[in-house]
Backbone:
DNA sequence: CACAATTAGGTTGTACACAATCTAAATGTG
DNA sequence: CACATTTAGATTGTGTACAACCTAATTGTG
């Protein structure tokens, strides 16, 4: 039972996603507290650790977030001294985000955080990979509808 | 690949959950707009449609939300005329939430909403049920750690 | 019964999310 | 080149989430 009629929230997949997402974010809260950043901020850092630099809209494409969310978030990362923001020389509309040395240095904490999160799911690697791809595919299908 | 080292967000299960949850909530936004309520408000209504009446903390236990989230949310449902709030006679600390006739009547929209959401996942019932239970179990294990 | 401890909700402050709107800077067309 | 259109970000307003704190009501213990 996970469908039509009227099911209690506990048996609906949307509530499972909503509630699992909040539970994991809570886990990150504890792990990221020493770094002084939040989970969405950490996601932005993950992209920057991979790309070195990124525009606001490239970040938005990766994380599926709009400027209304990213602008203030990136300002906070800037005030923490982890990134710098600057208008592109080619196109004054574009804002480039780049890592500071402090932001780059924070990268070294990532592996242990990922490891702890994986451990807290209680799943072994193969199951984790399988579940990740099923959920990512679902998200992709739902997003495709808009 | 869905784990330690430093993976891009797209390959991490936490980002899949976070992003799938937001995608589905966006879907609900469109479906619930005619009713004038949000997805978290709809979750509270689902519980009330099942139980008829509930205290704030019972609702919190079901949805894993605290009073800091529920108090303003329930006030909005009250100002929409969907529920009424009142202190319990037995224990003045307890606030009972009950459906109004309008709130009860809204129940009839639930089945089609659930059906549309299920359809938008692109999954058939068996897969949906299977995925739901895997994600719910994961959330339970993560919550058990606190 | 007195009183410390607990419990139920509410409030405050911070940080997302996202719709809607705004501004400035490109871009495209005649 | 002039000008309507598009595009990139920022801003505003509403609604979650959640930590931290507050108050009032109840409970447990001596």
Residues:
């Amino acid at each position: 039972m996970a469908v039509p009629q009227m099911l209690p929230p506990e048996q609906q997949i949307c509530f499972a996603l909503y509630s699992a997402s909040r539970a994991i974010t809570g886990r990150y809260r504890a792990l990221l507290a020493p770094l002084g950043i939040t989970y969405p901020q950490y996601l932005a850092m993950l992209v920057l650790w991979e790309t070195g630099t990124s525009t606001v809209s490239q970040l938005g494409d990766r994380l599926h977030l709009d400027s209304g969310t990213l602008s203030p978030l990136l300002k906070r990362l800037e005030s923490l001294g982890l990134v710098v923001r600057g208008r592109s020389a080619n196109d004054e509309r574009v804002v480039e985000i780049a890592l500071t040395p402090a932001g780059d240095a924070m990268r070294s904490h990532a592996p242990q955080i990922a490891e702890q999160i994986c451990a807290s799911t209680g799943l072994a690697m193969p199951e984790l990979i399988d579940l990740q791809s099923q959920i990512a595919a679902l998200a992709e299908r739902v997003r495709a509808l808009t």
